Amino acid sequence: METAKAFENHPLKYAVEEFSLANSAYLRMVKIGVGNFAEYERAWREFLHRIERVWIKTQAAVYHMPNWKKIESGFIELRREDPLLQYLHQARNVEEHSIADVAKDWDPHLQVRQGKGIVELTWEVWDRSLLPVKNRGVVYNPPMSHLGQNIEHLKRKGKAELRVIAEFALRFYCDFLNKVSSEVVGRTDR
């Protein structure tokens, strides 16, 4: 394939590979859906690792390029201040360096009531929730906003919070890679 060959020596090759692997982990989460939680959680943990490595591999690839320092500080600030990006970074650290859970399986709270020959069943709507993570004594709650926009309404019953957060992360890091490619790598090619 012509494009793969052209991309073979691109400085962001390894960052893009990590992005692709993060996307694959996300797609596994989608495919598993309400299925096996252990597999779902494993895909989420892999997603956390891979999406963080997009940042790490990008830094390693372009740290010496003249335009990198100009945009790096803005992204460092975003990763430090944005609740979603901060949560992802800290959840990955907790997953890597502790034995704490980073996600919770659905508990339907199934209730059965019987009376006058009628059986009534109730249960809570399906979801898979993010858990607060604690790293170095600081608790990071699941994000309610991203890039200044409230995302709480997207994290509702019937949705897997992990997938919602992963979708936002994929969009963010796709834009990040495109920006680095055009403003850092592209400018050194001229």
Gist of the model:
The chain has 190 residues and is α+β, with helices and mostly antiparallel strands. The chain is built from six helices and eight strands, in the order H-H-H-H-H-E-E-E-E-E-E-E-E-H.
- How large a portion of the residues is in β-strands, by DSSP E? 5-15%
Helix fraction by DSSP (H/I, runs of at least 4): 55-70%
| CA-atom Rg in angstroms | 20 Å
Order of helices and strands: HHHHHEEEEEEEEH
**Spatial strand sequence of the major β-sheet:** 1-4
Low-confidence region ranges: none
Structural class: alpha+beta
The shape is elongated
The end-to-end span amounts to: 25 Å
Strand count, sense and barrel status of the largest sheet are: 2 strands, antiparallel
Give the beta-strand count: 8
Total domains, how many?
A: 1
The number of helices is: 6
What is the residue-averaged pLDDT? Answer: 83
Structure write-up:
With 190 residues, the protein is α+β, with helices and mostly antiparallel strands. It has one domain (2-188). The protein has six helices and eight strands. The strands form four sheets. A two-stranded antiparallel sheet has the order 1-4. A hairpin with a 2-residue loop joins strand 5 and strand 6. The chain starts with a helix and ends with a helix.
